[in-house]
């Protein structure tokens, strides 16, 4: 019987390989018809072009162009926030970014830093800033799409940017995670700890719940050994490293194939704690525990933004979207702009809804879309959230109206000590257009050719899928 099972498995593997080969041949034939090079060739070209640059050019800009799925992290030492990458859909195609932009909080200025050897354009990557060697920015993974949006490319590369010397280095280290996007990465005990994510190659996809650690001491990857109940595979979760060594995983998203041409998505609202085993000092052994949550829990949603509160076992979470499916082709999206604090000081993680003036907390109808409070970030998903000096910053993101997707570039701050009101640092003209004409789908159009002109050379080489 064992032999029969092996033969059966062998036949399945051969059939799968044959099917994959046919799909690959069809894709190659299709991209040949539109005259597009293979996506790996495009990515290699972008990386080579960036590597050929020899000097650092710093340029003051008014503010970053509209985008989503970018990284947005505080500088480890200076009074700055660091933005990298992201994507923008202009109504016709998706523009990818690999620009590195610094926001100076004290002077309210943005600086674009074009440095040699930059990573290829991407979105849905993870970034962590550390104080090592006078400050570093680490970036792993993410995704890229070809100009036709027919080919997708997921990265498994690791990059470090020296905040002092202003140069990029691609770190070559074996044994790391496979290519993915939508994963999360945090700093814990001088290690970059990475969890989850997904990979999509246009005809198949896979979600992950594996766990890796990269040592900042010896630049080596290792797979973390765990015990207990692990989270299910997912992407887009929230991940926070606590001061006491614990790591929190909350929520996320995955989809599964229900029929041949129908995939059903599921939003997760569970929470897990990753605790170092007794005596562990190098992120080698952890224990997973699924935990209960207390307080004012957020409603089910995904693509919300999170930022830890430095020096405390707490974090802020903002916005997000809930997609409700009505059959195979009907989807209703509800966007949020509520702000929560997650407190993990106690044994039971506790949520608190933060009240900042009176504001709508979701966007689920055209009437609600018209009620734009200029002093409050409008409902959105995939935005940037960063905490620095008791101030919370929100930049960009996505909202939708019908089948139209609107990418934002407004910018807000909130004094978390006073919690009196949001401060609008930069407004968004598209939001004003939406307010003046909420009945027209055209008022939400993102077909803005000026955005294409603003992108750097490498950005125009590719496009991106939204994670």
Automatic annotation (TrEMBL):
Coiled coil feature spans: none
Cited Pfam families: Kelch_KLHDC2_KLHL20_DRC7
Region listing for Disordered, in residue ranges: 1-23, 435-467
Bilayer-spanning residue ranges: none
Bias-annotated ranges (Acidic residues): 444-467
PANTHER family: KELCH DOMAIN-CONTAINING PROTEIN (PTHR46063), KELCH DOMAIN-CONTAINING PROTEIN 4 (PTHR46063:SF1)
Protein name: Kelch domain-containing protein 4
Species of the source: Aphis glycines (Soybean aphid)
